[in-house]
Amino acid sequence: MDQPSLPMTTNTPEQAEPRQRDSDRSRQLILDAARDEFAGHGLSGARVDRIAASASVNKRLIYYYFGSKDDLFTAVLEAAYAAIRTAEQQLHLTELPPPYAIRRLVEFTWNYYIEHPEFLSLLNSENLHKARHLEHSKQIQTMNTPLIQTLEEILGRGRQAGVFRAGIDPMQLYISIAGLAYFYLSNNHTLSSIFGSNLMTHKAHSERLSHICDVILGYVLSD
Amino acid sequence: MDQPSLPMTTNTPEQAEPRQRDSDRSRQLILDAARDEFAGHGLSGARVDRIAASASVNKRLIYYYFGSKDDLFTAVLEAAYAAIRTAEQQLHLTELPPPYAIRRLVEFTWNYYIEHPEFLSLLNSENLHKARHLEHSKQIQTMNTPLIQTLEEILGRGRQAGVFRAGIDPMQLYISIAGLAYFYLSNNHTLSSIFGSNLMTHKAHSERLSHICDVILGYVLSD
DNA sequence: CATACAATTCACCCAACGGTTAATTAAAGT
DNA sequence: ACTTTAATTAACCGTTGGGTGAATTGTATG
After folding, report:
1. What count of CB pairs under 8 Å joins A to B?
2. Residue A13 has what pLDDT?
3. For residue B116, with 0-12 CB atoms within 10 Å meaning exposed, 13-18 middle and 19 or more buried, which class applies?
């Protein structure tokens, strides 16, 4: 969730004397450590003891605040989704000419995945478990992506201006944009191994982004 | 590996009296059970006892034949790669006109992923572990996909005939074809949950395949 | 300064897990 | 038939892992 209100102290939030007990801080330390642990080892591979250790927190606290390993995973997922949704909304795509808006979305998606590899890994884990944590989460269900509406608006504008082809399904397009980036990055280890070339270099990255833009714009733009 | 030669018996292979001991059969039972277990629960979530039970085999046999859980996983991966590579080679893409060849590859990839969801899951697991099993496998390293060469040939022919655009990188194209199918199918649970619609219906599948063909051909075909 | 509650620690549980030792038995070779 | 070897079983082991009960200590409040 978002930054919780600090407890009322006489001090300013910054430069506060280091309190020995701070539940918000502990929660956040746990969440951050859990995010990395789950992303690095998957849900089953993750170790609660390691999370506690790397958060510098007693293991019991994890159960005190989050109840169980599964509930902790749910909390991590919720935070991860909240983060990317928030970032998406900073894009202001509706204010851009349609082709630029699409390109911007592609570049954002690509860069976000590169900067947040743990997001990809968490989604993989959640899918392995058939999204059962998401199903149980009230938060994310309501967080029903407004991005599709935004995309629909952009596609409509582009179509009216005669620059986009007709009949594009915004959800399909969104999944394609995500998929073109996701697969390359999430499967980079097996792909690198099979193709015998390192896909994670700076050069390889910019080539891939360029290719993705070509594919998406090649599809969206009318001939 | 491939079908091992049967031990010399006086009987025909089919209708053979059920031998009480059959190492090849046991190996295969273990491999099949392991494939499903690893795909269903990931490497860490998989249980050797469950594999033994569902293969109807004593747990000790797994270690007798495969050495360790990790080595078993490697064997499963090798078998999975061998299977898709074999299937790919049945396509005879070089005998088709370039646009048909591309479409055929797209349809094959899509259908193969649908029919072999465990393949996607195994790859996810392997990537979570940074492809360390693939790296240690001699088999797969040499299995260096001839599909890229095939694609290159098709792209060259299409270019010369003036129907394909210039400058297409076959590896990028392959990753895109795979990615457009993979992401939708592998992440269908989270996507279904977020979009609030079931992506695994027959109708949704055919819509997705049609979209992927549009995207890939929209990119590949010259205007 | 006493009280009360929230945050944190400590020690512990036990089921499950990957793996192993050693005995046993079916079948191929002679 | 007998021997040898490969396939299979039974029982066991040490450790790890998620989770808990209950005590303890910091801190805001009256």
Report:
1. 154
2. 40
3. middle
Q: What is the pLDDT of residue A18?
A: 67
Residue whose CA lies closest to nucleotide C7 C1': A21
Check residue B13 and give its pLDDT. 41
Mutate to test the interface with B, among A84, A113, A175, A195 (most CBs of B within 10 A): A175
Q: Looking at the DSSP assignment, which residues form a beta bridge with residue B164?
A: B221
Rounded to whole angstroms, how far apart are CA atoms B157 and B81?
28
Sort out which chain B residues have CB atoms less than 8 A from A43's CB and list them.
42, 45
**Contact check, Cβ <8 Å, A141/B193:** yes
Q: Is the shortest CB-to-strand distance from A71 to strand D under 7 Å?
A: no
Residue with structure tokens 């009987």?
A: B11
Q: Which of B121, B118, B92, B116 is nearest to B105 (CA)?
A: B92
The whole-angstrom separation of Cα B177 and Cα A97 is: 28
Question: How large is the average pLDDT for residues A105-130?
Answer: 98
Whether the CB-CB separation of A180 and B181 falls below 8 Å is answered with: no
pTM flag (> 0.85): yes
Q: Quick one: how far is CA B154 from the chain centroid?
A: 22
Q: How confident is the model at residue B15 (pLDDT cuts 50, 70, 90)?
A: very low
Of B80, B174, B75, B161, give the one whose Cα is nearest residue B120. B80
Counting other chains too, the contacts that A190-198 makes at CB distance below 8 Å and 24 or more residues apart are A190/B123, A190/B126, A190/B127, A190/B131, A190/B134, A191/B175, A192/B131, A193/B131, A193/B134, A193/B135, A193/B140, A193/B141, A194/B134, A194/B140, A194/B143, A194/B144, A194/B145, A195/B144, A195/B145, A195/B148, A195/B171, A196/B141, A196/B144
Side-chain-side CA neighbours of residue A214 (13 Å): 20
Partners of residue B184 in chain A, C-beta under 8 Å: 175, 179
Bin A131: left if φ > 0, else alpha if -120 < ψ < 50, else beta: left
